[in-house]
Each structure stands twice: as C-alpha cells, then as structure tokens.
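Researcher: I'm comparing several assemblies side by side, and this is the next one on my list. It has 324 residues spread over two chains. Same procedure as the others: predict the full complex and return the structure.
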Amino acid sequence: MTPMTSRTPVPAPPPPSPLPPDLAARLKRTSDGLLPAIAQQYDTGEVLMLGWMDDEALHRTLTTGRCTYWSRSRQEYWVKGDTSGHVQHVKSVALDCDADTVLVKVDQVGAACHTGARTCFDADVLPVRDTAAPAASGPTAATGSTNTPAPPTDSGTTTPAQ
Amino acid sequence: MTPMTSRTPVPAPPPPSPLPPDLAARLKRTSDGLLPAIAQQYDTGEVLMLGWMDDEALHRTLTTGRCTYWSRSRQEYWVKGDTSGHVQHVKSVALDCDADTVLVKVDQVGAACHTGARTCFDADVLPVRDTAAPAASGPTAATGSTNTPAPPTDSGTTTPAQ
C-alpha cells in the first residue's frame, strides 16, 4: 500500500511583494492594497502632499532615491517630477506605529503641488472656530467662506470643552 | 383629464452633512466616506500621526478646538486625548488641492503616539538605499533589518536615475 504523502494541492501563494518579507508581512493596507504616504520637506518640516503607495511604489521609493506613488485615478505608477521636473529626493522613510502609513522626508525641487504652490495645503484654509472667543454667532460660525483664513488662535492653553 | 403634475417620487436626499454645504460638496472621500487627516505640531513641524475623519469628525474638529477622528477599527469617534490626556488643540485646518486630505496643525500635549513616543513615526525607520553610493550589493540592499536606520544621505543633488 502506498504510504500517505503530503501531495495534497495547496493554494497558489499570493504574488510576491518586492519588499523584504518581514516588512511586507506587517504592512496594514487599505482594501485596495495601498498606504497613505505623507511627503514632508526634510529641513523645513513643511507637509508637502499626501500620495498613495502600494508595495511596488514603496519598494521603488526605498531603492531609487525618488518618490514613486500609485495614482488611484489613473491606476498607474508615477514618479514625482517626471513630467514637472519637481522631483522629490528621498531622505528617509518611516512607517508609523500601526504600519498603515508612511512618512517620507524628501528634498522637494520647486513646487510640490500641481497648481504651482509650494505645498498642496497652501490654498484652502478652513475656518476654525476660536473656542477661546464667545460663541456669539452660534453653530453657523463655521459656515463662512472656506477661502477665509481662520483667525489667529492663541488658545494653546484653552481648557478643552470636555 | 387630470393634468400631469410633477408628483413622481424622487429619491430621498443623502443624510445632511454637518459641514457647510459648499465644503461638503467638494470633499472627495474614500469609498467609506473618510479623509486622511495629518496632524502636525504647529510650531516644530513634527508630523505627529495620521487619522481619519468623516464629515462629522471634521465638523467637530473645526468647531470644538479639539481633534476628533473616526476609528476604522472600532467604528466610532474618538477625541484625541480623552483617555490619555494627550490632547490636540487645533490651531488651523487646511484642505489639499484635490479636497481629499486635511492637514491639521495642532498643539500636542505630551505624546501623540499610543506607545508613548512623541510621534507615531519615531520608531520604525525603513532602510533607504543611498543612490549616491555604488550599488555593490545589488537588489538585496533594501532587505536589511527594518529597524536599521538608513545611512545619512547628503544626496540632495543626486542626479535622478531617470
């Protein structure tokens, strides 16, 4: 009688990640396999933009010295600066405590934003209700023009509402 | 004969957003209705953490002076610091050029990370291949321990590979 052997078919493994196995194993990706990637200017601390990376984009970012992202709208990789010249030279990459976000410190050449602004967060400051001031205008205080910069808040020591 | 009237049933409107209508209309949310929200220390520029906000969390953040996030794992709102005391006082909120990410500048009390670290990006620096150095070790250069900090790169002027 033929002895039992372990010839039972096993499911095909998932496509290999280009990342080191220990890193690939602990990443917590969105349902479409992505991580948000924050790009920050390494010396000034400016937050430049947020892009998305899958394993391949993160691998390329770690190994080529240039930031590579995955475009959710175009469904393709893009190397920052390839068309604009506004290259992001990678200085360091850190994963957060939950392994679901990366922070990429870069040296940004020129404007980070496709609008020509230095960062993608320069143009659209939302009004923040100053909780140190009396709420004279009630719940509509936050409904003003979204292009109106919030008044300066010096309320770092404001007692939280709860 | 009864004249035609516009009594055709219309679909119920979506639940109203607590945000100003012009802002709610232009937000580009993920399929589960969220925006990534980057929290940055307003004076030092440290990127502290990334959380998620739906319209209600963003509304609370804009109007209460405290950062409120949506927990994807617990499926509930959480006000940063309510359990730890490590409050985030909101200084400013900006929407990015694509209206799909917010940058919240805050004054962080104590540690931002649940591990006790100042930021969620302090502990897990990934090795970056220094593209200014000869690639003597080939494609395995990026497979070292993920706890090994990348060597310092002074290659801000490195010519991109492509």
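Model: For your comparison table: The CA atoms of residues 113 and 133 of chain A lie 34 Å apart.
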